[in-house]
Amino acid sequence: KEIPKKGQKKKKKKKSWLENMTEANHTLEWDSRRRLALQMDEWDELAGFRREFDIPRYTSVQNNVEEEPSDGPPWNGEGSDRQEVIYLAGNSLGLLPRRARQRIASHLDQWASMGVHGHFQGDEPWFAIEDRPAQLSVHLVGAEKATDVVYMNSLSVNLHLMMVAFYQPDPSSGRVKILMEEKAFPSDEHLVASQIRFHGLNPENSIVRVPASSEGHVLCTSAILETLLQEASTIALILLPGVHYLTGEVLAIEEVAKEANRLGIPIGLDLAHAVGNIELRLQEWGVDFACWCTYKYLNSGPGALSGAYLHGRHRHASELPRFAGWWGHERASRFMMEPTFVPQEGVRGFQLSNPSVFALAPVVASLTLFQEAGMPRLVRKSRSLGEYMARLLSHFLPNEVAVLTPEARGCQL
């Protein structure tokens, strides 16, 4: 470390881009707000990732979407008169990572040049195609090992598969109910009700709903813990979202999971709006299982494969009930075609069929970008942008607009 000489001024430590952005947010000068926004863009060390995505363009800078003719999309094609849209729909469908095309083309070439040998040869043999996305997701969701994560099926299918293992109602003891929030995503409502009916029970009296708070928050921690304590003897499974799809509020996962573990009640999470949005430490928090889609924040395309997580304590629990298929069988003997099912370690033992290599290609393309950017940096930038937007709203529309999302939120405002 350089020690300044006597009388020499000590050099000031250069502020990070985040410190500059945070400071700017709290000392906003409204007469120079455009200059400030441009300065924040200049400080942004993640700005280069914008070039990694295809951003839709308007047909004309003069026309908006509503004014476009109905015989064609307003963002079709390239040209000097085409302006990028302001895209705020990532919580519905993320944008295309440009690397996805190359990855899909690579597997097409492997298929064309190798045929069936592509299963065991090439840069990414299809026999172990699920390994790389799982490894890239360890830090993303806070797993302990890559075998705790797998990409397969779709979100609702994976939730069904996990519930086969963890929703084991016992009418003799009275533990038959599933705890969930009010205003749950419709697919979660459907799958929970169908699971209950599958066990010969009635959804009308087998679902415990956590009431919303007086402010309309549906993931109120105190309400969840109070309901859990009151109904503990009747609850067979907890199924909650990590981030609520309507309100954007974040579940206090660590606190709720800790209480669930104390009471001996399995807890599963629907992380559709959480993965790629907030930091997660599923292993540390003690979540039994979690599932998420990849077409939103993970930018993997419409209908992309879904992710699933199983806690490390269940890694060798081969006795867990499950619906089995050949791709979940241990690799060493999979092609021996034996009739007895021997599950792979962890959540990989819940796979049914081999995943589409073309559906996994965009997932890997996106996950490599997340690894390069790092979730801590992405979350910090997300919070900074959210604070900036909230300040703009409170300054320009103090009486017309109210922020409904609580402070415990992800990137939605």
From TrEMBL:
Ranges of residues in domain Aminotransferase class V: 208-394
GO cellular component, one term: cytoplasm
Keywords: Hydrolase, Pyridine nucleotide biosynthesis, Pyridoxal phosphate
Classification via InterPro entries: Aminotrans_V_dom, Kynureninase, PyrdxlP-dep_Trfase, PyrdxlP-dep_Trfase_major, PyrdxlP-dep_Trfase_small
Any Gene Ontology biological process: anthranilate metabolic process
Gene Ontology MF annotations: kynureninase activity; pyridoxal phosphate binding
Domain of life of the organism encoding this protein: Eukaryota
HAMAP family: Kynureninase
Protein name (record): Abnormal fluorescence under UV illumination
